Amino acid sequence: MRIEDVDLFHICLPYVSPFQTSRWTELDHECVIVRLRADGLSGWGECCATQDAAYSYETVKTNWLILEDFIIPDVLAADLAGPADFEAAVRHITGHPMAKAGMQMALWDLWAQQAGKPLQKLVGGSGDRVAVGVSVGIQPTTEKLLETVDGYLAQGYRRIKLKIKPGRDVNDAAAVRRAHPDLRLQVDANSVYRLEDAERLKAMDDLGLLLIEQPLAEDDIIDHAKLQPQLKTPICLDESITSATHTRWALELGACRIINIKPARVGGIAEAIRIHDYCRARNVPVWMGGMLETGIGRASNVAVASLPGFTLPGDISASARYYAEDVIAEPFELNADSTLSVPTGPGLGVKVRPEVLRRVTRRRKTFGKHADAPLD
Ligand code: OSB
Ligand code: MG
């Protein structure tokens, strides 16, 4: 397949409420959306970096830069029949997994459309729905947190993840546990603790948490391996896992017992599938993480989360949990059993609304044959 044109859109979409983690706060979702055109088809992708280089070193602007200077020239020059061709074409670019993943998502959308299949089938997934939960940001007070959790439970979510930070960890998690003794509950520290904080983390060991996500630094598999034996609660790594190789290192060292898979963080869907397969062969549970994606990235995550090794609920909530108005025509809605339905149309199976995309776009650029082609 030869790509004829590539469009980049730097968009900004307000969240329904601010999202606060231990190390940064997001008020709106800025990201780079990729559109590819080939053989009369359009493929869509989303690059998931945050604005402020807090979750990882990538930002919206580095995504744009790496796409413009390196990835797009590679894509326009190559004949890309499948993911292996794309990975080979961009292998000379070190790092920048989210920039690569956004482009790869748009390519998968095209490959699946060309095959007349939903993305789910192309990646090897099955079933019509995937189990999901909500990631709840740090709230101004514990009372507000309890109210927020109640709100999500009332909507039908059956698994809650709490963002924690020093001073808003043990007490918050214990308060939610007291209010909901049987709730599937987990916490995410986003790399804010150090090994010396082990006692603080041990204090959450009797709360019946499903897992504690990324307690220590993003580059610190070694100290995670020292921490895990001190905890009953399984550690799940997020930021530390940027490839299948890191997955192997973390599991061989005993740094965690569960892996959070975000295709965006590991350079794309192909590497996400390799991590899934590696973990499944070793009975290590995996689940789909999220980066507060628009409906484009959400559609991709839902499809990949339908692979059989995704045995824990994903951070892929309904569109309304994030946005009053999404860029896709039919928002994702929560089913009564705390699942999202997997799209069944060809490719990502979602329709982008040009008028919304136009309204939220701050910067647009087209590369390739038709540099000034209209949006739709
Ligand atoms: O650490 O899992 C994380 C959002 C942005 C960046 C990092 C993380 C998150 C979330 C939100 O927890 C998950 C979602 O998309 O609902
Ligand atoms: Mg996380």
Molecular structure report:
This protein is α/β, with parallel strands linked by helices and 376 residues long. It has two domains: 5-116 and 351-368, Enolase-like, N-terminal domain (Enolase-like, domain 1), CATH 3.30.390.10; 121-341, Enolase-like C-terminal domain (TIM Barrel), CATH 3.20.20.120. 34% of the residues lie in helices and 20% in strands. It contains twelve helices and 13 strands. The chain has a seven-stranded parallel beta sheet. The chain has a four-stranded antiparallel beta sheet with strand order 3-2-1-13. A two-stranded antiparallel ribbon has the order 4-12. Strand 9 (235-237), helix 9 (244-253) and strand 10 form a beta-alpha-beta unit. The protein is globular. It starts with a strand and ends in an 8-residue tail after the last strand. The relative contact order is 0.17. It binds 2-succinylbenzoate and magnesium ion (MG). Magnesium ion (MG) is lined by residues 188, 190, 213-214, 238, 289. Magnesium ion is lined by residues 188, 190, 213-214, 238, 289.
Summarize, please:
The protein is an alpha/beta fold and 376 residues long. It has twelve helices and 13 strands. Bound molecules: 2-succinylbenzoate and magnesium ion (MG).
SS field, number of helical segments? 12
CATH topology of the largest domain: TIM Barrel
Unreliably modeled segments: none
Mean model confidence by pLDDT: 97
Q: What is the CATH C level class of the largest domain, in words?
A: Alpha Beta
> What proportion strand?
15-25%
Biggest sheet layout: 7 strands, parallel
Main β-sheet, spatial strand arrangement: 5-6-7-8-9-10-11
CATH architecture classification of the largest domain: Alpha-Beta Barrel
The general outline is globular
How many domains would you count in the coordinates? 2
Q: Could you give the count of β-strands?
A: 13
Q: What small-molecule ligands were found?
A: 2-succinylbenzoate, magnesium ion
Rg over alpha carbons: 20 Å
Order of helices and strands: EEEHHHHEEHEHEHEHEHEHEHEHE
**CATH level-4 homologous superfamily of the largest domain:** Enolase-like C-terminal domain
What is the CA-CA span between the terminal residues?
Answer: 21 Å
SS content category: alpha/beta
Bin the helical content: 25-40%
